[in-house]
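User: Can you write out an input/output pair for a complex, sequences first and structure second?

Assistant: Here is one pair. Inputs:
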Amino acid sequence: MCHHCNYEELLSGADLEATPNRVRVLEVVGDNRFPLSASDIYKILERSSTINRVTVYRILDRLVENGVVERISTGGRAFYYGLAPNDYHQPHPHFYCKMCGQMDCLSPESLTVDTEALWKTYPGRIDKVEVRIDGICKNCEKRQTE
Amino acid sequence: MCHHCNYEELLSGADLEATPNRVRVLEVVGDNRFPLSASDIYKILERSSTINRVTVYRILDRLVENGVVERISTGGRAFYYGLAPNDYHQPHPHFYCKMCGQMDCLSPESLTVDTEALWKTYPGRIDKVEVRIDGICKNCEKRQTE
DNA sequence: AACCCAATGCAAATATATTGCATGAAGCTG
DNA sequence: CAGCTTCATGCAATATATTTGCATTGGGTT
Ligand SMILES: [Mn+2]
Ligand SMILES: [Mn+2]
Ligand SMILES: [Zn+2]
Ligand SMILES: [Zn+2]
């Protein structure tokens, strides 16, 4: 659990009514150390009580829309979701393992990106800079050589 | 047309027989100024002569596998494809317009990424660093305000 | 000729996400 | 309170992108 974030507050601060389902989704996303797919989130929620898959998708969409959650692309077909950057969470790159689909959060300093110039010169609206490392994670690498 | 690249050579250099279909796919990808989806590529090829959608997917997979073509994720659901970095094409970031789906190639210098440290310290295998800017392109931005 | 293999095609299946429509609860209006 | 509206949710159907299974074909090989 992220001790900085009160999820109800995060929701209302983003103009979203804190419905039980929204809180549950946000808890799963926020409490996890790495980003999850909609399907992962759904499966976790299903364990404790029933919720519809579509509801999960819709809630994730709203959370992304309102800047509470970040939608992250992977080297695979599904999006993953993590807490959006805020006062306590700096933007940072992710590592995606193409074998197991696990995504890791890398530290914000692991890799420096200078976007200054781009922001000044790009003739369109920039919403987000996503940096993703693709490869094979330590575990999968080991498993391969066995 | 990229005047540096001979596509037949690129294929054989990558241990791929230069079948007519492969050459056609690679021409479409290589001659285009920006990355295209499998579906875009299929539609373009269909115009000149018949080819199966699945063949396009399979060829793209082989080309990616053998390092001739790069698979690029977008803020949307489909992958885009562009020439893989080589002696004449440096790696570079892309801009993805979430309104029209158009992807732009940005110059390699538009944005500097220092991955040194990461390569040294990351305890897994790194295959690729992808940098993608998401937003709304100039055209779509203009259209919105009208 | 008989065999083999890789490339291709076509149909079906899969994975992921979205849409349309129904229901019910909460809040507001008069 | 009765009637109206809005919004969250569920369920079924649909859409989109991609993959798989299996058949065919054509070129090389024994
Ligand atoms: Mn993260
Ligand atoms: Mn490019
Ligand atoms: Zn892995
Ligand atoms: Zn656009």
